Known about the structure:
This protein has 293 residues and is an alpha/beta fold.
Amino acid sequence: xxxxxxxxxxxxxxxxxxxxxxxxxxxxxxxxxxxxxxxxxxxxxxxxxxxxxxxxxxxxxxxxxxxxxxxxxxxxxxxxxxxxxxxxxxxxxxxxxxxxxxxxxxxxxxxxxxxxxxxxxxxxxxxxxxxxxxxxxxxxxxxxxxxxxxxxxxxxxxxxxxxxxxxxxxxxxxxxxxxxxxxxxxxxxxxxxxxxxxxxxxxxxxxxxxxxxxxxxxxxxxxxxxxxxxxxxxxxxxxxxxxxxxxxxxxxxxxxxxxxxxxxxxxxxxxxxxxxxxxxxxxxxxxxxxxxx
Length: 293
């Protein structure tokens, strides 16, 4: 275990506001020879030693976007269709007045491209200069920007999306405050984040314990340095309610296997596990649509 209990800035749980001292140590992992710890708050929120230090690792160069999901055309299409379906479901039940959309954490802009083709006046922002440059080279309206520098005056959007972003942020409340300031009065924020209660996570945790900490690879695929936080559905709801957001939709889901691997055998194995996860309501993803109260 790394000595990470003494953060320079005091840390409190984003969900329940308890201090770090009211937690239990969960496990340690190493990622490319860099160790980090995972802790569990009493409320169920999981967080890493990076969260305690209020920092995100500097990993968002072009190599970060070399995974199957970003480089395989079929994988990219499967993933975009997956997240688009969640947004369309939310907006079918909670329509918005206009067609302006901002995708925060847009990466190389695949979702912005889909939204533009679907008739949205869409644009995207991302912290990665490399990812934004790649998207701009395809003619997409992207800009390199972090949340603290995002202009709010005179900018209003009917929909703000944040796919796989929340868990990466040292200060997750900043996303909510920025979204609140740029949404139209009946605008909707749609976000997707990771759950700590999936069947795959439980199996990987069991393997770690059964091997006395030696078999880390399965958990390393789930708990990566870029993910500072992991929610339970209850912790996510509590986090949003604390910041005065009305939850319109909360879905559990799994990324399509075809977006994760091009191997048909691997896809079949994942589909089997995902089917069980769906029946037990213990999927790896949490998708939320919400609006400010």
